[in-house]
Fold this protein.
Amino acid sequence: MSESKETVINVSHNLRDREYAKRNVEKYFVFSHTIERLVFQEEITGIADCSLDSMVECIKTCSKGRYKDEDWIGRWIAELKFMGLVESVEGKSIRFRLTDAGKESYRQQTFQSIYADLMNARDSRRLSIVAICISILALILSLFF
């Protein structure tokens, strides 16, 4: 009985790890795109701040609909605020602008490189699964032919 409990715990733990890895990819996508949008908007238009609603829509559009959970996007933007990378702007709606620390993280490409590493790890996992499937198929074919 205890072995089956351990198996269930291990399976659920692995699922949580996969969900956590997926959320991290989404999180760093939001971090990097939020910072990039604020930098480009300030440089191109001269407008230093952006509303939360337009930021969420931009992230949904840039991700081609993969990351559409507005609650998580709002949490991650709030986390950027907590880390001191963006700050709130006084006004009628919720608006944000980059702080000096946010501009420095953009210059160092901090979140962009983390996001790229997470995407490479994800693609490596997918490639290894394909390689294992091909190996199993090759083994089965070699045994029967």
User: Anything to note?
Assistant: DSSP finds five helices and three strands in the chain.
